[in-house]
């Protein structure tokens, strides 16, 4: 595959995944790799291979990173509570939100918001 073609595939995959994430955030629903695969007309295995080849991370890791980035925007740009942010970003529970936020952002949500 040529570099231009690979870049195009990477951009298309990122754009489609971005649309899927926005839909999940609007619905306050957790994003799922299996749901993304179905939406893209792929099997979960095909989606994993496409992400490995084009993005370099697993689909679930990419989706979690997107959730954390969205939560970070909400923390810095709104006055929502951490519970509200957790649900808007599609985390099922506050505990899951805090655990993953600390893992990805290397800070608690409150500390991150104060930066």
Explain what this protein looks like in three dimensions.
By secondary structure, the chain is mostly helical. It has a single domain, classed as Arc Repressor Mutant, subunit A (Orthogonal Bundle). The chain has seven helices and no strands. The protein is elongated, with a radius of gyration of 15 Å. It starts with a helix and ends with a helix.
Secondary structure: elements and pairs:
Layout: H1 3-27, H2 33-39, H3 44-54, H4 59-77, H5 82-88, H6 94-105, H7 109-114
Properties at a glance:
single chain; 115 residues; mainly alpha; Arc Repressor Mutant, subunit A; 7 helices; 0% strand
Oligomer: single chain
CATH class: Mainly Alpha
Under CATH, the topology can be stated as: Arc Repressor Mutant, subunit A
Beta-strand portion reads under 5%
> What characteristic shape results from the CA principal axes?
elongated
Order of helices and strands: HHHHHHH
Q: Based on the coordinates given, report the CATH architecture.
A: Orthogonal Bundle
Beta strand count:
0
Query: How much is the average pLDDT?
Result: 91
Summarize this structure briefly.
The chain contains 7 helices and no strands.
């Amino acid at each position: 595959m040529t570099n231009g073609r690979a870049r195009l595939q990477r951009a298309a995959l990122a754009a489609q995944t971005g649309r899927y994430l926005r839909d999940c955030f609007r619905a306050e629903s957790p994003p799922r790799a299996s749901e993304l695969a179905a939406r893209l007309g792929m099997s979960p295995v095909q989606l994993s291979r496409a992400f490995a080849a084009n993005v370099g991370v697993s689909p679930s890791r990419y989706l979690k990173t997107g959730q954390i980035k969205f939560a970070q925007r909400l923390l810095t740009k709104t006055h929502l509570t951490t519970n509200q942010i957790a649900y808007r970003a599609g985390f099922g529970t506050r505990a899951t939100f805090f655990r993953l936020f600390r893992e990805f952002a290397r800070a608690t949500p409150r500390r991150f918001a104060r930066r």
